[in-house]
Design goal:
Elements (H helix, E strand, L loop, with lengths): L1 H9 L1 H4 L20 E3 L4 E3 L1
Length: about 45
């Protein structure tokens, strides 16, 4: 999180006080992931 803050602080808009920000942990709350493994054919599909 410190690296993200350093990047945001270096942004000229933030450094000059023209914009503010707040850091939050990334939360994935939508979407899906499918994984298919077929041992007989030694195939993996993502």
């Amino acid at each position: 999180m410190q690296k993200a803050q350093a990047i945001a602080d270096a942004d000229p808009m933030h450094a000059e006080g023209m914009r503010s920000y707040s850091l939050r942990k990334w939360l994935v709350n939508e979407g899906s992931l499918q994984l298919e493994v077929k041992l007989s054919t030694q195939r993996v599909r993502l």
